[in-house]
Structures are given as structure tokens and as C-alpha cells.
Amino acid sequence: ETNEAEKVVFSVPSYACQRRISLDNHNTIFTDALSLLAEKAELSNEDGRGVAFRRAAAVLKSLPRTVTDMEQLKGLPCLGDHSQRVIKDILENGVSSEVKLTTQNERFKALKVLTGIFGVGTKTADRWFREGIRNLTQLRNSAPSLNRAQQAGLEHYDDLNQAVTKDEADAIGEIVEKAVLAVSPRSEVTLTGGFRRGKLTGHDVDFLITHPEEGKEVGLMPKVVSWLESRGYLLYQKTTRNSYLESEDGPGRPSSNMDRFERCFSIFRLEKTERLNAKKPEALAENGAQPQEDVTCSISGHMQLQDKDSQDEQPTGDKLWRAVRVDLVVSPISQFAFALLGWTGSKLFERELRRWAGHEKAMSLSSHALYDNNQNIYLRAASEEEIFAHLGLEYIHPFERNA
Ligand code: DCP
Ligand code: MG
């Protein structure tokens, strides 16, 4: 009977956007290894190799059960020689020797720590590594010039490298919604990114903001940011303005994958409430705060918590707040479906959608629009379902975009 199971041959379509990939991954032992090797490639500027490993991992994520025999991989797409060697190594030895070597590699370890700082990319991390910097202590002591983002990133390093929970994402969602409705009552806020795909944790929280009336979203971001800033919710923010209309490459043909929406990269200061920090109910009691259903998101809650600022100075060692990375994006309603699809991810799912559009349909997909290069027209869409239909793809629910 076990023999029977081992003979199971899988069939998988070649583009990740044709597959339903839930969070229920039966092959983490392989996909963790392949993802780590993708990361190693990306840290070495070998992007092509990185994508190859990510595509291989996405094939294994889509399988209905654990791979137990190399025979089962016959006919599967995206599994190159290198990925197959890694899988074989794990099947035979329980671990991949290449992964083991990588995790012990000085450069890999250092670049992981350094690129873990918000605002630090591979190029900067690599320069620091070549200057002999291997960790945060050495970085702090060598005092290279840091930009404002990197300073904030270094200051909040531990918080920002601690996973954000869904509860924390929801608490921030309520604050963002309050801010948006305060400055523009009919505007709408949507949680995107990994949390929209059903993930229970993430490295940040992503929101898309729009207004039901075209044009009314203009000027929204600075007002939202001011509202948040004046109430002490932002530890850092940098807003980049919308450059879509002035871009020369045209909406259907963006020069890069980077979209041109007005975007705010921020670091939120999130108060730890009873709800978010059930382990320390005494912390609130000590500060004289009344336990409340939803302290974080009420104005009164914020006032109480401001009182606590003085308490932060006390040598309790327990911070009463944490830093969380939050991305805000504003889209006009006419582009909302494209922005939602583009900001829900996963990154590989997005890349595969664009590859499918270009190679299979002669269309150009971005987070702003879909252009048909045969008919030379833009294809409108008011929902994600319509975009999948234009692309000739079966609709894939966000929960199944975890490629
Ligand atoms: N995205 C994009 N182009 C960018 C930035 C992001 O297309 N320049 C998309 C792809 C991502 C999504 O937006 O899936 C959100 O970006 P994140 O980096 O936050 O990725 P996730 O939310 O998927 O992961 P995590 O849970 O780690 O935050
Ligand atoms: Mg995210």
C-alpha cells in the first residue's frame, strides 16, 4: 500500500497563477530549503537563479501530499537540475548539504542580519560586509552614515524583525480606518498583502485606500499621515507621491515592476493592550487604565496610553508598545481592482501573472491597468474576477495565491 502511495504522479500547470496554492504546505522540508537558496541567490545579485528556486518551491507547495520519491517529480514543471539535486539530497540525507553550508556562511549570515534592517538593501549590506561589518554592534560602532529610514530601522530592529500577528494587523487596521474616515468619510480601507491571503503573521501590514468617486482620493495621503502623526502613531514615515500620470512608459508598459501609486512607508507605534498582550494584564492595571474592549483604537485609549509615555522611562524593561512596519497605498477607484490584485501577492504569484499576461496573452499587466497589445486597448475591470477573466485564467481566491 505504501508502494502505491509512492507511485502517485502529480500533475501541475506551468504558471503559478494557474494553481491553487493554499497555506497548507505538505512539503515545507523541501520548500524551506529552496526558499533559503533563493534568498542566498538574491543576496548575491543572482536574481534569475533566485526566481528559479522560488518557482521550484511554488510547484512543491501546490502538491496535495509530501514528496517521498524522486520518481514523483517526473513531468513536473519548473524543477531544474539544481532544485532536483537539493530535493534528492533531502530525501536521501534528511538535509541539504548546500543549505547547511549556506547557513554557516559568514557572508550569508551577515547579509541576512544587515538586510534585516529596514531601509537597507543588498547593495548597502554588501558594501558594509566588505568594510568588515558583520553584525549590528559592529555597525553601530563603525558609525557609517545612515539615512533616516536606516536610523529608524536600526533603532527598532528587534520589533521589526518580530512577526506581526493578525490581531496586531487588525488593531492597526482600526487605527488606519479611523484616520481615513476622519479626513474623508466615504473612503475605503482594504487590508492587502499576506494577511489578505489568510496568513496569520507577516513582516508588515499592507493597506490599500480608495474613494468611490474618481478623483476624490487626490490629496488623501498627506491628510491621513498628518492625522496619524499628530496623534503619535507614527515613529517614521516617508511618502512618495503618485507618479503614474507623468510616467513616460505608459500605464500598460511600466518600466519596472514597481508601481507608481502614492505610497507611505511607515513604522507604527502600536500600544500593547490587554487584547494584544494577554500575558501582562497587570501592566495596564499598574498604569491605572481600565481594561477595555478595544483600548488601542479609541481616542480615549490613546489618551490613556499617552499618559504611559512617562512610564516608558521607568526601568521596568517591559516596553508598553512595539514598532510595526505599515505600508499605505492610495489608488483611484478606476484602478482599484488592479491595485488590489497587485498588492495581495504573493510576490511570485504577481510575477507569474505578469509573465502569463505577456507570454501567453500578449497583454501587459501592472498594478494600474491591463493593456491588450493585440487590440491596442486598455481592458477595464471593476473586480479581480474580471481581471482573471480578461487574462483567460480561472479565478484564484486570495487564500490560494500563496505561491
Ligand atoms: N508588491 C508589489 N510591488 C511592490 C511591493 C509589493 O507588487 N513594489 C506586492 C507583492 C506583495 C504585496 O505587494 O505580495 C505586499 O508586499 P509585502 O512585501 O508586504 O509581501 P507580503 O505581504 O506578501 O508578505 P509579508 O507577510 O512578509 O508582509
Ligand atoms: Mg506584507
TrEMBL record:
Q: Which reaction does it catalyse?
A: DNA(n) + a 2'-deoxyribonucleoside 5'-triphosphate = DNA(n+1) + diphosphate
Residues annotated to bind Mg(2+): D204, D206, D327
Q: Which GO BP terms apply?
A: DNA modification; double-strand break repair via nonhomologous end joining
Q: Which UniProt keywords apply?
A: Magnesium, Metal-binding, Nucleotidyltransferase, Nucleus, Terminal addition, Transferase
Which cofactors is this protein said to need? Mg(2+)
Entry keyword annotation includes Transferase:
yes
Where in the cell is the protein located? Nucleus
Q: What is its main location?
A: nucleus
Q: What is this protein called?
A: DNA-directed DNA/RNA polymerase mu
Q: What species does this protein belong to?
A: Sphaeramia orbicularis (orbiculate cardinalfish)
From the UniProt record, report the name of the gene that encodes this protein.
polm
The shown chain, on whole-protein numbering, covers: 131 to 533 of 533
